């Protein structure tokens, strides 16, 4: 029984790394292509759909591999637990790469985001003091540490929600009278 748990953990680590890398790559492509600055509602939906498809695909493939490694059986609870653990690993990988990227590769990305936010606040007609107050909060929220925690939290939450659905689809209970 111990080898199954270890194998399942290793499988989830593998898929967590894959999902985290894919998420990070999507965010880098969005950043370098200029799509982040030209953000529109349509682009937001396209970005959401791409992310959603990646998440569902990786979760489905991970649970399929876990199920195959357990003799073709996966209970709903195991699927949901695996989905949540996968989300934690995925979030740590994506958040870690984001932290490294912001601190060591492109530290100007935060300033770009602050400048973009300032421009939008000016376009709304806010006073200088209101803009400065908003900038203080925004710069705190855009810090690499806060972003890391936020990425991990929301990835776990999102994967839990997706796990509720995908685990129901992927479940295959072991027959009660089989040994």
Compose a concise summary of this entry.
With 179 residues, the chain is mainly alpha-helical.
Describe the protein's topology.
Layout: H1 2-32, H2 41-69, H3 76-105, H4 108-123, H5 128-141, H6 144-170
Helix pairs in contact: 1-2, 1-3, 2-6, 3-6, 4-5
**What gap, in angstroms, lies between the N and C termini?**
14 Å
Mean pLDDT: 85
Tell how many strands the DSSP assignment holds: 0
State the oligomer.
Answer: single chain
Q: Quick one: biggest sheet?
A: none
Order of helices and strands: HHHHHH
Strand content: under 5%
3D architecture notes:
By secondary structure, this protein is mainly α. It has one domain. It has helices at 2-32, 41-69, 76-105, 108-123, 128-141, 144-170. α1 packs across α3. The protein is elongated, with a radius of gyration of 20 Å. The model has no long low-confidence stretch (mean pLDDT 85).
What key phrases describe this protein's structure?
179 residues, mainly alpha, 6 helices, elongated
